[in-house]
Write a structure and sequence with these properties.
The complex is a heterodimer of chains A (227) and B (150). By secondary structure, chain A is mainly α. Chain A has helices at 2-10, 22-28, 50-62, 100-107, 109-119, 133-144, 159-177, 187-195, 197-211, 216-220; strands at 14-19, 32-35, 71-74. With 150 residues, chain B is an alpha/beta fold. In chain B, the strands form two sheets. In chain B, strands 1, 3, 5, 6 and 7 form a five-stranded mixed beta sheet that branches. Classes of the chains: A mainly alpha (227), B alpha/beta (150).
Chain lengths: 227, 150
Amino acid sequence: MSVLAHVFEAAGIATVVLSSIRPMCEKVSPPRALHCEFPLGRPLGRPNDPEFQHDVLARAFALLDAPSGPVLVDHPEVIESDEQPLACALPPRFDPSLPPAVDEARGLRKAYDRLLARRGVTAVGRVTDADGVPAALGVLHAIANGADWKEAGLPGGNTVAVCHDIRNYYEEAAVELVDGPPPVGRAMEDWFYDQTEAGRTILAARAAIRDSGAKFPIWFYMVAGHR
Amino acid sequence: MNGDQAMRAYAAGLPAPEFPDPAWVTPKPLSESTVAIVTSAALHTPDDDAFTNADTSYRVIDRARRDLVMGHWSPNFDHTGIVLDLDVVYPINRLEELAERGVIGAVAPRHLSFAGNQPDDVATIRLDSGPRAAAALKADGVDVVLLTPV
């Protein structure tokens, strides 16, 4: 972002950066930056809070009044990414003949469809769609239990893309199912990896792929790096 | 250490390009400026080409579009904020409100989206896709760009 600010400014366009990683912003030093210590992935801070978002924008655009730069100013509020798992009911076991994650994913389909109908767009679809998510989890279940990942039939043959599709499917379903206020920052991620069969299956499949000697990017980026 | 702290600590140590003689534009009044959003969230419409891993190009988002998905390849940040509210990543409705109130002059007809996970030398966006993006924004009469990361 800060690199593009320099490029645009050189072309004659004034820029304001919303910074998310302060040390990087200090190093690249764009002309004008408002550092926002908010959850990564939420540069305007709070979803569904137009007033707060306008406050961020007002502080950012105010930097255009600076007579010279670079200027780097901090938004006064810090928003922590909540590590507390959210309260979100998971479907009961329905078909015990299936791997648990496959059964679970099927059970979430109605919630996923409700959000899709309301929102009109989904991030699921890199290598599979919602219809393919349970089967993809079946493949990962097999990999976790010793199948060769290269021959197990992963959609698109892409370990990282299929994990994005599965996680997006779950997180979009969970937005419909969550009890109470909408989840903050990392709460949804914690729910996915710590509480769902799909999260456990992906972590187990990832460990199996790593232990099989696969190259680092093939397994590492299947989940968030600190896991 | 939570996920955001881990990611911030990691990113702080990444190599950073230097701009020894940075340009500085003295902007005209905001109330007369056309404003565009440029994001690194890898947003795209469902009918547009998805971002590849290590994509150095950008997608153009028409001002009226709201059916956007985040095609970013990093699993290391929250992808649900945008599911709850597009504006928390791409504040297009907030910009429209600012234009209605006369705070900004106009909302640009097109906005741009890059993928934040660029090669360390950032050579392509610095020398190729970035300048092309700037020319496209200039052609649309853009005076001010708001850059939003993820």
